[in-house]
């Protein structure tokens, strides 16, 4: 079975630009979450979606948005990129509570220059 | 606010030696508990989890962890480490509120293995 897949794997953007990151969950998983991991730190929660509804939002500015599609895949959008947005962006999928075991993709490495 | 503490930023052990990585959390109730491992530039791989029941849980790659409610701890152990265990290890918890499955991670422990 395919695991969580993310695209692209690497991305370089200029300050002020917009970026869209994509995630396909494990088949049968209805919950998708996004995390930002800055170098040397643990991942920080950005969003969680379950069956297309937002279930949680972390402490990130409104420049960050996401959505989930009917096939449970998801997009993370970041507007007006800042240098500080450079990070590894991780997507995770799960069956949902009462089984919140999250499986992670390989991540998208975003570099803002 | 909920938090997870991994007091050891970096640990170095000899190959074949035993390992214990510490994790403490601060919550009123028992959360869902996880250990993940991350190789450089890679995603996170789940090593083991605790939801309820037996407080000693077995995971992949020979790892185990013990949940101690009285100490709010979930320490990871391995009796004999291999060079391939060198990686970053993260402890994480989920407090599920209305279906929110936010994972809160510790800052991680970097494990170095010496011959």
Any overview of this molecule?
The complex is a heterodimer of chains A (113) and B (115). The model of chain A has no long low-confidence stretch (mean pLDDT 94). By secondary structure, chain A is an all-beta fold. In chain A, the strands form two sheets. In chain A, strands 2, 4, 5, 6, 9, 10 and 11 form a seven-stranded mixed sheet that branches. In chain A, strands 1-3-8-7 form a four-stranded antiparallel sheet, with no helix packed on it. Chain A contains no helices and eleven strands. Chain B has strands at residues 3-5, 10-14, 19-21, 24-26, 32-38, 44-50, 56-58, 64-68, 73-78, 87-94, 103-105, 109-114. In chain B, the strands form three sheets. In chain B, strands 2, 5, 6, 10, 11 and 12 form a six-stranded mixed sheet that branches. In chain B, strands 3-9-8-7 form a four-stranded antiparallel sheet, with no helix packed on it. A two-stranded antiparallel sheet of chain B has the order 1-4. The chains are: A mainly beta (113), B mainly beta (115). Chain A binds chain B through residues 4, 31, 33, 35, 41-45, 48, 50, 55-56, 58, 88, 90, 92, 94, 96-98, 100-107, 109, and chain B through 32, 34, 36, 41-46, 49, 51, 90, 92, 94, 96, 98-108.
Write a short abstract of this structure:
The complex is a heterodimer of chains A (113) and B (115). Chain A contains no helices and eleven strands.
Labels describing this entry:
heterodimer, A: 113 residues, mainly beta, 7-stranded mixed beta sheet, 11 strands, 50% strand, B: 115 residues, 6-stranded mixed beta sheet, 4-stranded antiparallel beta sheet, 0% helix, 51% strand
What order do the helices and strands of chain B follow?
EEEEEEEEEEEE
In percent, how much strand structure appears in the residues of chain A?
over 45%
Any idea what the shape of chain A is?
A: globular
The tally of strands of chain B reads 12
Summarize the helix and strand pattern of chain A as letters.
Answer: EEEEEEEEEEE
The chain-level structural class of chain B is: mainly beta
| Largest interface (CB < 8 Å) | A-B, 30 and 26 residues
Biggest sheet of chain B, open or closed, and with what strands and sense?
6 strands, mixed
CA-based gyration radius of chain A:
13 Å
Count up the helices of chain B: 0
The proportion of residues in beta strands of chain B is over 45%
């Amino acid at each position: 079975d395919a695991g969580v897949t993310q695209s692209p794997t690497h991305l370089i953007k200029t300050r002020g630009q917009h970026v869209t990151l994509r995630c396909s969950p494990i088949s049968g998983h209805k919950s998708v979450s996004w995390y930002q991991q800055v170098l040397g730190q643990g991942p920080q929660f950005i969003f969680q979606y379950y069956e297309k509804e937002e279930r949680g939002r972390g402490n990130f500015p409104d420049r960050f948005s996401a959505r989930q599609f009917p096939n449970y895949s998801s997009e993370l959008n970041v507007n007006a990129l800042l240098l500080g947005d450079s990070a590894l962006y991780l997507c995770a999928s799960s069956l949902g509570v009462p089984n919140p075991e999250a499986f992670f993709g390989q991540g998208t490495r975003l570099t803002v220059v | 606010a909920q938090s997870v503490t991994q007091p050891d930023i970096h640990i170095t052990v000899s190959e074949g030696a035993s390992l214990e990585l510490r994790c403490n959390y601060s919550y009123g109730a028992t959360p869902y508990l996880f250990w993940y491992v991350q190789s450089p530039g890679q995603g996170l791989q789940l090593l083991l989890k605790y939801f309820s029941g037996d407080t000693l849980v077995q995971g992949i790659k020979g790892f185990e962890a013990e949940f101690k409610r009285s100490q709010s701890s979930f320490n990871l152990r391995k009796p004999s480490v291999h060079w391939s265990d060198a990686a970053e290890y993260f402890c994480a918890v989920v407090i599920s509120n209305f279906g929110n499955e936010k994972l809160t991670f510790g800052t991680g422990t970097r494990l170095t293995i010496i011959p």
